[in-house]
Amino acid sequence: MTSNMLGLGCAVALALVIGHTAAATDTPDVLYRGYAIVSEPTIDPDLQQVVYLRVQGRTVLEGLLEILPGTGYRLAHEAAADPEIGRLYEQPYPENQRDLGPRALGEVLERLAGPAWRLVEDPVNRLISFEVQPAYRAGATISLRPTGPEAFVSDWSRGGQR
Predict the structure, then answer these.
(1) What's the pLDDT at 5?
(2) Residue 138's pLDDT is what?
(3) Does 63 lie in the same domain as 28?
């Protein structure tokens, strides 16, 4: 009988220690009056989702079509986009942006388009597009010199005089 009482005493003491430890912890998995408290991690807004991939496209449009699958977004139809969107889509894809991520989708898209374009999101239809900034619209007066190989061709090489 003494061994039974000793065993019962140990069981009670163990139960008290476990109960006290469980009540002292503040984790979401602890039972509280028969219910488990479960907390879910916050979900980032869709354009904050992290992308990580290698882009093979030759143009910005081809690159966008590689980036967007799996994100839940699609490109807006050209008829619903900025009338000058073709200027962006036809640009060569920048070599320094082939390896993307880990970065937020919105950052990747804005960087790809560059400062002349503003990212536009339609969260209802899950579409994205870009609008050209006013200073860069066709007809805006911007004085730029060519920077490609043609910039280094002098008038003399064309047969003209300076």
Answers:
(1) 57
(2) 75
(3) no
pLDDT of residue 1: 56
Find, among 86, 30, 93, 34, the residue nearest to 59 by Cα: 93
Given this model, what pLDDT does residue 144 score? 54
Q: Is the peptide bond before 83 cis (omega within 30 degrees of 0)?
A: no
Q: Distance between CA 6 and CA 78 in Å, rounded? A: 82
The answer to whether position 144 is within a domain reads no
- The parts of the chain modelled with pLDDT lower than 70 are 1-33, 36-38, 40-45, 139-162
Q: How far apart are CA 32 and CA 60, in angstroms?
A: 54
Question: Cβ distance 77 to 129 under 8 Å?
Answer: no
Residue 47 has a pLDDT of 92
* CA–CA dist 123, 34 (Å, integer): 40
Which residue range is the domain that position 63 belongs to? 46-136
Q: Are 47 and 121 in contact (CB under 8 A)?
A: yes
Residues 25 and 102 reside in one and the same domain:
no
Q: Which of 126, 144, 139, 142 is nearest to 49 (CA)?
A: 126
Which residue matches tokens 């002349």? 116
List Cβ neighbours of 28 (8 Å cut-off, separation of 6 or more).
Answer: 37, 38, 39
Q: What is the pLDDT of residue 157?
A: 43
